[in-house]
Amino acid sequence: MTTAIAPARTLRIGPIELDAPVVLAPMAGITNTAFRRLCREYGAGLYVSEMITSRALVERNATTMRLITHHESETPRSIQLYGVDPATVESAVRVLVEEDRADHIDLNFGCPVPKVTRKGGGAALPWKLGLFRDIVTRAARAAGDIPLTVKMRKGIDSDHITYLDAGRIAEDAGVAAVALHARTAAEFYSGQADWSAIAKLKEAVTSIPVLGNGDIWSADDAARMMAETGCDGVVVGRGCLGRPWLFGDLARALGEPDAAAGPPVDATLAFVAQAFRRHAELLVEFFDDEGRGCRDIRKHVAWYFKGYPVGGELRASLATASTLAEIDDLLAEMDLAAPYPGHAAEGQRGRAGTPKRPALPDGWLDSRDLGAEASCALADAELDHSGG
């Protein structure tokens, strides 16, 4: 239940005006077309793709080309790019613009995953100020009229904070908005996000929207973040796992009167089961393969039914179902009249973990300039053909 309600507002990112100041954070293996469509069915916002590797896009990797394909119902189309080489990122942006594949492009400078930071990417990259400036400036120029935004973290660790410098550089480069996950790479997803950093970034970056990210588990959290930090909108990641209707709650709390797709949710087990089934159906459509779609929904089982009276055996069966008919039969076994369990279904979901020392290229922290060894690490990073 939402208690702290912010005044209704929109969010403008370049020429794009959103009926609610809400953005879905890119999450690998999660924010594919199926999940984005599902979230959109509940509320307004900007729904961003999984992180796409710039090199793989330029080389037209088949998996990557599938990931950047939007359903006809998705408007505006939003894609997040990851890259460490200015020329490659610029080329990737040109592909999206010249082939009319996106209405909004986001650059990832916030990923804390070791395989990314080890090569100087993600949250590690803004430490190299010249490299960061070059990537963002060239990407913004290549984007032209398509709004380009930046998502970042506070820094690498508490001794190597980068977000204020990066925010000012991005603003000067002509980006349309900046978003801050208020943790360092070292914190990963542990502890509590430092919302005061979002407020400081808002004070430092004054001509474009500043969006806040971190520990938004409910519409109340989002309204409180905006009230406490003065940020212009929120970016929601783990809080919507197994709870795509959160975007309806957010739209009702923060957006225009008609921003939500329906009335407030009474999240009975029947409602949750219906959302789970719809998600599975959209995954089957996305993959064009019933078996693969049913396999992909398995990782969502624990998130959807958190706190609900769904026994371990039934959960395990859902996590092995291979057809929609099997899923239907299993959902029918539930006590669908069970009411919303309250606190048991609230709070943190998804990965958290513990703080860890970030993996970085050798000598990365010795200077904020890009040396020869760091350049070699970046060259290796751009050989990544993962497809995102």
Automatic annotation (TrEMBL):
<feature type="binding site">
    <location>
        <position position="151"/>
    </location>
    <ligand>
        <name>FMN</name>
    </ligand>
</feature>
<protein>
    <recommendedName>
        <fullName>tRNA-dihydrouridine synthase</fullName>
        <ecNumber>1.3.1.-</ecNumber>
    </recommendedName>
</protein>
<keyword id="KW-0288">FMN</keyword>
<dbReference type="InterPro" id="IPR013785">
    <property type="entry name" value="Aldolase_TIM"/>
</dbReference>
<dbReference type="InterPro" id="IPR018517">
    <property type="entry name" value="tRNA_hU_synthase_CS"/>
</dbReference>
<feature type="domain" description="DUS-like FMN-binding">
    <location>
        <begin position="24"/>
        <end position="331"/>
    </location>
</feature>
<feature type="binding site">
    <location>
        <begin position="237"/>
        <end position="238"/>
    </location>
    <ligand>
        <name>FMN</name>
    </ligand>
</feature>
<dbReference type="Pfam" id="PF01207">
    <property type="entry name" value="Dus"/>
</dbReference>
<keyword id="KW-0285">Flavoprotein</keyword>
<feature type="binding site">
    <location>
        <position position="181"/>
    </location>
    <ligand>
        <name>FMN</name>
    </ligand>
</feature>
<comment type="function">
    <text>Catalyzes the synthesis of 5,6-dihydrouridine (D), a modified base found in the D-loop of most tRNAs, via the reduction of the C5-C6 double bond in target uridines.</text>
</comment>
<dbReference type="GO" id="GO:0017150">
    <property type="term" value="F:tRNA dihydrouridine synthase activity"/>
</dbReference>
<keyword id="KW-0820">tRNA-binding</keyword>
<keyword id="KW-0547">Nucleotide-binding</keyword>
<keyword id="KW-0560">Oxidoreductase</keyword>
<feature type="binding site">
    <location>
        <begin position="26"/>
        <end position="28"/>
    </location>
    <ligand>
        <name>FMN</name>
    </ligand>
</feature>
<dbReference type="GO" id="GO:0000049">
    <property type="term" value="F:tRNA binding"/>
</dbReference>
<dbReference type="InterPro" id="IPR004652">
    <property type="entry name" value="DusB-like"/>
</dbReference>
<dbReference type="GO" id="GO:0050660">
    <property type="term" value="F:flavin adenine dinucleotide binding"/>
</dbReference>
<feature type="region of interest" description="Disordered">
    <location>
        <begin position="342"/>
        <end position="366"/>
    </location>
</feature>
<feature type="active site" description="Proton donor">
    <location>
        <position position="111"/>
    </location>
</feature>
<keyword id="KW-0819">tRNA processing</keyword>
<dbReference type="InterPro" id="IPR001269">
    <property type="entry name" value="DUS_fam"/>
</dbReference>
<dbReference type="InterPro" id="IPR024036">
    <property type="entry name" value="tRNA-dHydroUridine_Synthase_C"/>
</dbReference>
<keyword id="KW-0694">RNA-binding</keyword>
<feature type="binding site">
    <location>
        <position position="80"/>
    </location>
    <ligand>
        <name>FMN</name>
    </ligand>
</feature>
<dbReference type="InterPro" id="IPR035587">
    <property type="entry name" value="DUS-like_FMN-bd"/>
</dbReference>
<comment type="similarity">
    <text>Belongs to the dus family.</text>
</comment>
<keyword id="KW-0521">NADP</keyword>
